[in-house]
Amino acid sequence: MYMKTVNSLSGGKTSSYIAVNYPADYNVFSLVRTSNKKCMFPDKKIRQVVADRINNEFIGTLEMDEIIYTMLDLEQYIGKKIHWVSNHLTFDDLVFGKNPTGKINMPNDRQRSCTFALKVRPIEQFWFDVIKDPIEMRIGFRADEGRRAKIMIDKTNENGFSVSKIIVGKHKNGNNKWKNKEWRKPTFPLIEDVVFKDKIEKFWDDKSVRFAYKNNCVGCFYRSPVLLKHMSEKCPNKFDWFNNIEKKSLEYKKMTWKKGITYQKIKDSFKQLELFDDDFNDCDSGYCGL
Q1: What mean pLDDT, rounded, does the chain reach?
Q2: What is the pLDDT of residues 117-136, one digit of tens each?
Q3: What pTM was computed for the model?
Q4: Cβ–Cβ under 8 Å, residues 64 and 235
Q5: 36 contacts 241 by C-beta, under 8 angstroms
Q6: What is the Rg, in whole angstroms, of the alpha carbon atoms belonging to the chain?
Q7: CA pair distance 195, 233, nearest whole angstrom
Q8: Degrees (nearest 5) of the Cα angle 7, 189, 138?
Q9: Looking at the DSSP assignment, which residues form a beta bridge with residue 61?
């Protein structure tokens, strides 16, 4: 039985390479949003373009702003629609809830919930609403990332599918009706075809797609403290969003994004170092594996 194919796009060069070289039935990009106006995307017209794509309000993202241009450029380059999805919750909603009471539910490197809620869940819901049948999903892991692929494969069932609890309707009382469903079989074309980072970088050298310095959230807690310091200087308003959330969390339940260090300390540290973009590699980036 033929399974429809989906390319899961993160906005980075690797998944974008897959979109170009491994055409799929669907290309899907999941956008993390914020309602914090200090992180507002600067171009009002593009904000409206994004809002129309996700059918929801768009103020800004906690990723680098360039990622918006990446996805718009990439769609033009491949000549095929990219489906943008986004949870109805912003990252702010995930942390505070819809009715803030001063309590904070902050994900961290010991209790990760943001990737699933803000990246994976919207793609799952798109699959259920639009495709419905099990799919083959191409994941952008390169030839030297077999360990990451194994972790994902180990989470699949005996048939090789990811199983998730999906909203399939409503009960009479208005509560969501949930059901466990096989929905995707992850595949790794770059591992199969032995594609490494150097080939991907060379591919994009002369292409008209603008890429962010790093994809994934500016303050991702999987990043090293030195890279987080660098991001605090490149994207100060967005890093301050993470820093201010942590300060409120410390007042409430003494929780930090990273074990053993606060973001304020990271922001104030490494003052003697001059950090450059090429001082970091993908191992420093933090991962939002889908």
Answers
A1: 90
A2: 999 999 999 999 999 999 99
A3: 0.88
A4: yes
A5: yes
A6: 19
A7: 33
A8: 20
A9: 33
**Which own/partner contact pairs does 85-88 have at CB distance under 8 Å and 24+ positions apart?**
85/28, 85/29, 85/30, 85/31, 85/54, 85/122, 85/123, 85/125, 85/126, 86/30, 86/31, 86/32, 86/33, 86/54, 86/56, 86/58, 86/118, 86/122, 87/33, 87/117, 87/118, 87/121, 87/122, 88/56
Confidence of residue 101 (pLDDT cuts 50, 70, 90): low
- Max CA pair span of the chain: 62
Give the CA distances from residue 192 to residues 133, 168, 202, 242, in Å, rounded to whole numbers and listed in that order: 25, 35, 19, 37
Residue 226: both structure tokens together: 């030195």
